[in-house]
Specification:
Elements: H1 3-7, E1 16-17, E2 24-25, E3 29-34, E4 42-46
Antiparallel strand pairs: 1-2, 3-4
């Protein structure tokens, strides 16, 4: 362990809104990635309590890009 590792501030907490219960969570679980026609896609998150009950979808890197025509 380095001195910087002991004295630096921790990284900011990552938070998201649960797609099932709608409450904020500081331990988001990615459950699916939504692609959009224009602009970047986005990841949908669930809280650890709701994640087992949410139907998972593809995440980035799980779906091969479609071949160009």
């Amino acid at each position: 362990m380095t001195r910087e590792g002991l004295t630096e501030l921790p990284p900011p907490a990552r938070n998201a809104i649960c797609c099932d219960c709608g409450r904020p969570t500081y331990a988001p679980v990615p459950v699916r990635h939504i692609e959009r026609g224009s602009g970047p896609g986005y990841t949908v998150y669930a809280c650890p309590r709701c994640a087992p009950d949410v139907a998972p979808g593809p995440l980035p890197g799980e779906v091969a890009p479609s071949p160009s025509s």
